TrEMBL record:
It catalyses: phytol + CTP = phytyl phosphate + CDP + H(+). This is phytol kinase. Belongs to the polyprenol kinase family. The lineage of its organism: Eukaryota, Sar, Stramenopiles, Ochrophyta, PX clade. One of its GO terms (cellular component) is membrane. It comes from Ectocarpus siliculosus.
């Protein structure tokens, strides 16, 4: 019998996997757990050295391919609705475009990652997931190439006005497009069982987003005389990205996708948040766009600290 989603989550909570050996640390409960997850679909392995996942199977009668395609369609639709919700507020002058832009920046990646456990265990499920930010990247590219809002009436205008800093269409080809493509890459390369990918995504989205949202509003103590970036902004970067990382680790651990617990990862996640916040202070002419420099810093440091 295929266990229900809730049962599967319970199994994975009880089960403590050893990420590197692929073995169990379940002690006396081992044989019971083994019996309960004997269903081959529930124990699809990712290969040597990875965690075995016992979550997000398609219900009986639905093929894994159809399930992944369905989840991808629902998440893709949700991503369009989410972006439209915030760009709509900016269009109706209910919110400044710079705020709606950073709210989307802060929330899109974490919301997307929260939905990852609902894909199947098949390795190619990551491609169905990556199709969602890819779709957004295509929308942004189309909006960026469609010309400035005052010169045309295309439906991309709302996106351009709310997502670009200056209202210039070409700007969606910069930060927003890089942000979406960084998510595509992390999704494909670091899919689900990588604590490092998860932390890197939280630095880029929540850290950088919170620094802007809080720094603009409350940033009184600037790092440099006459500079823009503030200590309040950096504090928001570190605390926001750290808390989001720990919460996300707990979420993936709950589904049996990560063996490491939030407590075990906390010190290393904090170190990555501090380093990423420091890199965010450098001007783009030195380190490039922060949608690239921040996640790359987090990935490199994460590899060193977590060892994989
Ligand atoms: N550590 C930080 C980072 C940002 N800010 C505030 O947020 C604003 C925008 O920050 P910046 O990272 O330069 O954002 P943008 O370049 O506009 O956007 P993006 O990072 O998406 O390119 C700054 O002017 C500043 O008021 C801050 O106070 N402290
Ligand atoms: C303004 C942005 C960056 C500038 O630094 C962010 C642009 C975000 C994209 C328009 C949308 C990205 C979509 C997500 C990857 C998927 C979200 C899914 C979810 C269910 C909301």
């Amino acid at each position: 019998m295929v266990p229900s989603f809730a049962t599967r989550a319970r199994i994975s909570r009880n089960a403590s996997f050893q990420e590197h050996s692929g073995g169990w640390r379940g002690g006396s409960s081992r044989s019971r757990l083994d019996r309960r997850i004997r269903n081959p679909r529930a124990t699809a392995a990712y290969g040597a050295g990875s965690v075995r996942c016992v979550c997000a199977l398609p219900p009986p009668g639905i093929s894994p391919l159809a399930w992944d395609a369905g989840v991808s369609t629902v998440v893709g639709a949700a991503s369009i609705v989410w972006v439209k919700l915030w760009t709509g507020l900016a269009r109706r002058d209910k919110m400044k475009p710079q705020v709606s832009r950073k709210v989307v920046h802060t929330t899109a990646a974490p919301l997307f990652m929260i939905l990852w456990p609902f894909f199947t265990n098949r390795p190619c499920a990551r491609l169905f997931a990556a199709a969602v930010p890819m779709l957004q990247a295509v929308r942004l590219a189309a909006a960026g190439l469609s010309g400035d809002p005052e010169n045309n009436d295309s439906s991309s205008n709302e996106l351009v006005k709310a997502i670009s800093r200056s209202g210039k269409a070409s700007e969606t080809l910069d930060g927003p497009l890089k942000y979406s493509l960084a998510i595509v890459l992390i999704t494909v390369v670091e899919w689900r069982t990588s604590v490092v990918g998860l932390i890197a995504m939280m630095q880029m989205a929540v850290g950088d987003g919170m620094a802007d949202l809080v720094g603009r509003q409350f940033g009184k103590h600037k790092w440099r005389k006459g500079g823009e970036k503030s200590m309040e902004g950096s504090a928001a970067f570190v605390s926001g990205s750290f808390l989001a990382s720990v919460a996300m680790i707990q979420w993936f651990h709950h589904f049996g996708l990560l063996s490491v617990t939030p407590t075990e990862a906390a010190a290393r996640a904090a170190a990555i948040s501090f380093a990423s916040a420091a890199v965010e202070l450098f001007p783009p002419r030195l380190v490039g766009d922060d949608n690239i420099s921040v996640p790359v810093t987090a990935l490199v440091l994460g590899r060193l600290l977590f060892g994989k």
